[in-house]
Amino acid sequence: MFSGIVETMAQVVRVETEQTNKHFTLRNPFSEPLSIDQSIAHNGVCLTVVKIEGDLYTVTAMQETLNRSNLGMLKQGDWVNVERSMIAGTRLDGHIVQGHVDQHAVCVEAKETDGSWYYRFEYESSRDMIARGYFCVDKGSVTINGVSLTVCDPDQQGDMGYVSVCIIPYTHENTNFKYIKAGTVVNLEFDIIGKYITRMNQLLK
Question: What is the pTM of this model?
Fold first, then answer.
């Protein structure tokens, strides 16, 4: 479990393909060493450390993960938002994030607005997806590339959903949001509480 408060960024050093899986080797950006089996969110995707070589570590993404996230688009030199799993008994500064990305979204607008940054994203939507809790509500929470954010101006137009977020300068400079522009593909994880409530309502009908 994660909070969506990104700790730092890690740079991709190597990408290897094995059958339908991809192995990503990154440089460890944390001050302390990692361990095998440790869970780390990469652009919001929970992945397990499977190998450690000095200051490098490797994680593996299976086909389902590659289909639902932007990890399959990563290449050597790319920067990834990373967060280690939460420690019980500490403050939850973001919101409950599982690290289970639901789908892609595409940035349709990115601009600076008097010191902060405004981004708007579009994603595929349908009645079935909404019934599973894949939607946003105004002032609710959404995770984009592993960053816990507050929703503004959610909208639905036909088979496309839209969500906007505002980023403070600190978040812009310390996450890969500074590389996001119109056309950039990002990862979306919708609020788990909203998913449970939506599912419960469906079952109780």
Answer: 0.89
CATH topology of domain 8-84: Elongation Factor Tu (Ef-tu); domain 3 (2.40.30)
C-alpha of 137 from chain center: 18
- Helices assigned H by DSSP within the chain: 63-68, 127-131, 169-174, 192-203
Q: Are 43 and 69 in contact (CB under 8 A)?
A: yes
DSSP class of 89? T
Number of Cβ within a 10 Å radius of residue 153: 12
In this predicted model, what pLDDT tens digit does every residue of 22-31 receive, in sequence order? 999 999 999 8
Third-level CATH fold of 103-203: Elongation Factor Tu (Ef-tu); domain 3 (2.40.30)
Show me where the domains of the chain are located: 8-84, 103-203
pLDDT digits (tens, 9 = 90+) for 136-157: 999 999 999 999 999 999 999 9
- Tokens 């280690």 identify what position? 84
